[in-house]
Amino acid sequence: MYTQERTAVSNLVVGGPVAVNSYDNAIVAALVENRPVMLVHAFNGGYLRPAELKADSHDKGVKLATALDPATKEAQGHLWHVTPAGFFGQRPLYFIESAAGLVTPQPAPAGQADAGRGDDGVPKPQRRRISVHQEAPKTTADTVQVGLPDKVGDKWRGKNGAPEDTQLWIVTVTPWGGITFVPITHPDAILGFKDHAVTADSEVRLTYNWGGDFTGTVINTFYPRLPNEWNVPYHHVFT
Question: Chain-wide mean pLDDT for the chain?
Answer without folding.
Answer: 76
